[in-house]
Model the fold of this input.
Amino acid sequence: MVFGTATPFGRRVAHALERAEIEVTAIDVDLDDLEAVTTALAADTTAVVYSHIDPLCLEPRAFVDVDATLWEAACERQLRMFLHVVQASYAPLARSDGAMVCVCPTVALQGAAHLALFAAVAEGQRILAKSAARQWANDGIRVNIVSPSIHELLDNPRDPRFVDALRGRTPIDSYDTDAALREVLPYLLKTRALTALTIPLDGGQVTAL
Done:
């Protein structure tokens, strides 16, 4: 079950799973509605991938331009939607000893000028996922996080306001995010040996935490 396939990167996540011969069901419901999310998850669900990223979060902004309305839409609402998916996933994953993977871009690990709201959302999701992993371990559920580079999500990475977010050398010159998704996502959904782990999928720019 994949959440977030309405966005280009979410579709890349779903495609990577399909190329790894994993059956994908795209979930397109109102994530503000916990009941709708719960209903959308089939009783026999064995794996959940959360890759929803609201384009609103990717718009560069200065701190002084953030008001209460924007904070609610770009931060509070995004965390609430992820919380709904986490809550709704528990019952089916507990029945199947299943797994969940959350996609949190690397700004969650290091912050970024002009993308502070997105960094706050991504890190909030990452910590919720790690906390769920610790709480659900005895129920057989694994929850892990993958962190693609932020440049994979930006329509205009050359915008000078993103220089801070994109700086840093990629040690692996031929790094391919889509290939990494095909390799890492299936492994995390199948392995019973790992939980509460964050794996940066960025060719080595950011150290795993």
In short: The beta strands are 2-3, 26-27, 47-50, 99-103, 142-148, 198-201. The longest helix spans residues 68-96. The chain has a mean pLDDT of 90. The CA atoms of residues 112 and 163 lie 9 Å apart.
